[in-house]
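Quick board copy: two proteins, each given as sequence then tokens.
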Amino acid sequence: MARRGDFQAFKENLSFLAFLDKWNAFHTMKCVQTDLQNIFAIESLTTMHDYESVMAKGHGIPLLHSGKWGPSLVYWTTPISRRATQWSIIGETDLAHNASAFPIEGVCLAFLGMEEYPGRTTTFLPDSKSQYLVPGNDAAFALPPSEASQYRLVHGTSINDHPLAFYDPVQSTEGGIAVPVLFCLKLSPPIAATAAVGKAIAALVGIEGATDPMIEHESAAGDLVYASMEELLTRSATARKGIPLTSLKFKSKFEDQVQSYVFSADSDVPAIVIQKIPIAHPAQILPVLNFAHSYPTPKHHQILRKHLAFNALFRSCFNPFTLAIAESER
């Protein structure tokens, strides 16, 4: 990474490695990496290796050390990027190689990391366990008496509602120490979403309100605490032109047709930019990506991914190339 001249990413990676060393969390990150690889194999098998479905409806396509140290997931792409993806070269063993299958633009990643989080604690797995996922993924698995006081079982689902079972260590686990750290999904790029969705995700992962700094970033430009959904999605179009955010007209050409769209800045739908989401346990990854109101029941609403689809469609209509700035065009 330093060879490519990306010194900021290099510094961030060094900082994260120092963080893992401070909390003795390298084993935990390895456990999560193993989980993602095994879940990917399960979802690949249940979809007959339909990797596009795994990306769009499951846990996503796992990568390793792609831009940041550690595991990450490709969980959505734009339609153009989806067509450009080389699905045939994706594999289930060499996760570091999977990044080469995707184009540079139009790919949404969720990096799995950790951050200190005052007031919340996580108990890591002891060295005797190599993954959170129950070996063999036996949904009927019951803890043996020797482990009943050391672990709870967390039940979740994968794609096609395939059941999953995870270990959840308690503080009395041999070698288990509760530390003020939470897992964290860092979204690249950040997602513009309605404030209502932000609050619902906050409730899903068990944090207080959408104003929690771990789930909310002020805005794409950093100068708005809240903005309307339309304002966030059109800021790049209007900022380049130096035009105030008022009612504007946009024109898109499709073959021999010209379609006009009118944007109104008076929307009363508040929005935020979601940059990172804390999670208490790896079992929450799929519910967050699919944003299941009814978790842990197997009904997923795909709202987070639907927001990305809506954002992409909206920006295809309202962007710097379609903005009509001449008075005669308005």
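And the next:
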Amino acid sequence: MVYFGTGEMQVTASHTRLMLLYDSRNDDGIKSFFQEVHELYINTLLNPTYLPGS
């Protein structure tokens, strides 16, 4: 994949990397994206029916 934009990355406490690539910077949108994705990630890990690696 070739991409000529800009990106942001967040690393969770469990060393999972979340990356966002974008063409135009919107700080509020970037912050909102990472908050929502992190919340979904945590909810998935806390789900009692989730099997790690599945």
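Board note added afterward: The two ends are 25 Å apart (CA to CA).
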